[in-house]
Amino acid sequence: MDLKVLYYLARLRPLSAWSGVGLLIGLAFSVWAGGLGIDWGLIIPAAIVVVLIQYVAHPMNDVVDYPVDVLANIGGTGRHKPLISGLATRDELMWLTTAILCIVSILSTYIIIREPLAAIFGLVGITVLIAYNLPPLKLSYKPFSEVFIDIPASIGIVMGITTVAVHVIIPQTFFLGLVFGLMVLSFHAGYFLMDVQSDLWGGKVSTFVKYPYTEWCVMYPLLGCFMSLMLAVVYNNRVFVFPAAFFVAQAVLGHKMHEVRFRYHLVTERAVSEAKLKEWTDTATRMRKVLVTQMNVSLIFGLVFAAAIILFGVVSP
Fold first, then answer.
1. Cβ-based neighbour number of residue 27 at 10 Å
2. What average pLDDT is seen over the chain?
């Protein structure tokens, strides 16, 4: 296997926008709650586990989605799939997946020995990984899989990091994780929209295939904005006002994603002409540019939200 495969599988931008931002938020709250005396000896291996669980989801998903990916405009979407390009074989990706899961198991065992409560959040991460990619659930092929995956996984990251840092479960971190999960949902939706044509051909019934006329890329961030403002009122704390502004930005960008799609090609049929295929290829490329901006917004959101948490904290209502 070409070593470049390891880099391509990382998909650094979504890895940073999800695992990276989640770790940053969890760490920020830990510093606010416990100062610099937090348990760095557990935070570091826990952070590695978080990143590896998202990383290993990529080769797993590539293997599971191969029949759909061969129909997709992978280049136009800005991604590189080693299984499609021939840089890696199915067996190599399976061996890589096994090796990474072994590392995750070893690190998780150490963390749980030191902090048994961490087992709760480790179980959430593994369950989400399996449920999204593998039978019998294989949620990635069903509507609203993004909701059932993004929200629990994001809450698990934030709550898990703070738990190993301060050795106690703090209820407020649930709401931090919820806001973060809605931000992840806001940009993850763009991936589903960008892949809707190949999903339709490959029999993958995502939310966007099932309900093609609904602007989910707008609805999810608006839900995030509403939730943030509601929490700001309940907690009487300005820290939750900051995410609201970023959710508005995501909603505007999400509308642009849908506008590009509807303008250039409204998917209603399973078989299309070569001209229509070229049209969809161009559309996916245009949507990719908007999606990159959405992930950049998520990264900036993480920095601002983390700074606000350290400055203002989150107290019980």
1. 21
2. 90
Query: Per residue in 227-251, pLDDT tens?
Result: 999 999 988 788 999 999 999 999 9
Look at residue 48 and tell me whether its pLDDT is greater than 80.
yes
d(CA 48, CA 107): 8
Task: Give the pLDDT confidence of 150-206 residue by residue, as tens digits.
Answer: 999 999 999 999 999 999 999 999 999 999 999 999 999 999 998 887 788 778 899
Cα–Cα distance measured from residue 215 to residue 193, given in angstroms and rounded to the nearest whole number: 10
Alpha helices in 65-214 (DSSP H): 66-69, 82-85, 90-114, 118-133, 145-166, 172-194, 196-202, 207-210
CA distance 72 to 288: 13
Residue with tokens 């939730």: 227
Q: Please give the torsion angle defined by the CA atoms of residues 249, 154, 13 and 26, in that order, rounded to the nearest 10 degrees.
A: 90
d(CA 151, CA 32): 23
With 60 as the cut, is the pLDDT of residue 270 above it? no
The region, left, alpha or beta by phi > 0 then psi within -120 to 50, assigned to residue 170 is: beta
Rounded to the nearest angstrom, the gap between the alpha carbon of residue 10 and the centroid of all alpha carbons in its chain is 13
3-state secondary structure 260-281: HHHHHCCCCCCCCCHHHHHHHH
pLDDT at 64 over 60: yes
User: Rounded to whole angstroms, how far apart are CA atoms 164 and 168?
Assistant: 8
**Rounded Cα–Cα distance for residues 203 and 297 (Å):** 32
The alpha carbons of the chain give a radius of gyration, in whole angstroms, of: 20
| Dihedral pair phi/psi, residue 39, rounded to 5° | -80, 85
Phi, psi (deg, nearest 5) at residue 12: -60, -35
Query: What would the mean pLDDT of 114-122 be, rounded to a whole number?
Result: 96
The amino acid occupying position 30 is S
Q: Return the closest-CA partner of residue 249 out of 286, 299, 288, 195.
A: 299
| Angle at alpha carbon of residue 133, lines to 130 and 135, rounded to 5° | 80
The phi, psi pair for 314, rounded to 5°, reads -135, 110
